[in-house]
Amino acid sequence: MDVYIFLQELTEEGLPFVILFHHPDDSATPDLFRHRVQIEVAHEKASVNFLVADGLKFAHPLHHLGKSPKDLPILAIDSFRHMYIFPHSVNDGLNTDGLLRKFIEDLHSGKLHREFHHGPDPTPPAIEVVKKDEAPTPDSNK
Q1: pLDDT in tens, the chain (142 residues)
Q2: Residues whose CB falls within 8 Å of the CB of residue 113, separated by 6 or more in sequence, listed in order
Q3: Angle at the Cα of 46 (from 108 to 35), degrees rounded to 5?
Q4: If you placed Cys at 75, which of 11, 34, 86, 127 could pair as Cys (CB 3.0 to 4.6 Å)?
């Protein structure tokens, strides 16, 4: 089947794409991506389509992300409204439990869309931890 016809059919489903763009000489990263999808986010196949794309043949979408083939591999989500770049290096992210799952959860929760328009969510202030033996006593306030 022609890849463009296949993509058109997937697009008609209306499900966002989680796309790994890789260099055609790189077979390890796509294998790692497929493995991570199977063990961590296979349950998401009803809500997103997982794709592996030759980053040289599909350089045009990379251009829209401000990336080029020299930046490969790149992991992104195409929601059909926006494209969101995975916020970690692909190899680190695919070798760390939970990061791919969190990226997809952030899509579903609206966080990726919100941060696309308004910048990163503010981080809560750090909570100061005081050890029990360092806590002030009532007598130390005199």
Answers
A1: 445 545 566 666 679 999 999 999 999 999 999 999 999 999 999 999 999 999 999 998 899 899 999 999 999 999 988 999 999 999 999 999 999 999 999 999 999 988 878 777 777 776 666 666 665 656 655 5
A2: 79, 81, 82, 107
A3: 90
A4: 86
First vs last Cα of the chain: how many Å apart? 82
Residues 6+ apart with CB under 8 A from 134: none
β-sheet bridge partners, residue 76: 19, 85
The H or E element spanning position 10 is helix 3-13
Strands 74-78 and 49-54: unpaired
Model-level pTM?
A: 0.76
- List the structure tokens of 41: 């986010």
Residue with tokens 């966080």: 111
Q: CB–CB of 100/43 below 8 Å?
A: no
Structure tokens at 67: 């990336």
Query: Based on the number of CB atoms within 10 Å of its own CB, is 25 exposed (0-12), middle (13-18) or buried (19 or more)?
Result: exposed
